[in-house]
Amino acid sequence: MNMRKQLVFVVLSLIAFGFAITSDANTYIVGDNSGWDISTNLDTWEQGKKFVVGDVLVFQYASTDSVYEVGQESFRTCNTTNVINCFSDGNTSIPLTSPGERYFFCGNRLYCYSGMKLDVIVERNQSDIAEAPLSSVPETESGGSKNNNPSTIVPSGVKSIYSESNLVLMGLLGFWGVLISIV
After folding, report:
1. End-to-end distance of the chain based on CA atoms, in angstroms?
2. How far apart are CA 16 and CA 43, in angstroms?
3. Whole-prediction pTM value?
């Protein structure tokens, strides 16, 4: 009986550890309360934020707007013909899954020319640096141009997609631990 209690304690400890390691990721609502909008000063919004692998950008916008992800040259010229991803659902979450520079703008070229565009430099997550060799870091197209100081965090009501996927894994581990303790 004592062995079962220890096993349950170990499983619960693993679950708690899983929650602790998922807290590195931040979710950013682009433009904060103003959202992804022509009236939002996105350069000001981005100042002071440090984006790392695992973070999520949430674009909230009107049904008449869109979010295009493009390469550096298309970003510079607001070219809508060479698009990597196009979103128009009004509430788009984009996980930052690898280091490098990412480029986004509104599909309305006039809005893009007026500044409704965002480029973010995604840095390696500190927890990933200890695990991966430095040679696997891809280089950005431009070498980076933004000043990314420590970030400000989004409202607490927004969840990271990483915590949701780990919840499933941790739930399965907990279920497995309970099953073993019963047998």
Report:
1. 11
2. 38
3. 0.60
Sole residue written with tokens 């490098």: 100
Rounded distance, CA 29 to CA 45, Å?
10
Mutual angle of helices 2-21 and 161-182, in 10-degree steps: 170
10-residue stretch averages of pLDDT, the chain, 183 residues long = 58 47 78 95 94 96 96 96 95 96 96 96 76 48 41 43 47 53 59
Instruction: Determine what percent of the chain falls in helix, strand and coil, rounding each to the nearest 5.
Output: 40, 20, 40
pLDDT on residue 126: 75
Sign, CA dihedral 62-92-50-142, equals negative
Query: What letter would DSSP give residue 29?
Result: E
SS3 147: coil
**Amino acid identity, position 38:** I
Among candidate residues 54, 53, 47, 58, the one with its CA nearest the CA of residue 152: 47
Q: Tell which residue, 166, 161, 164, has the closest CA to residue 28.
A: 161
CA separation for the pair 102, 118 (Å, rounded): 8
Q: Where are the beta strands (DSSP E) in the chain?
A: 27-29, 51-52, 56-60, 67-70, 83-87, 91-95, 100-105, 117-123
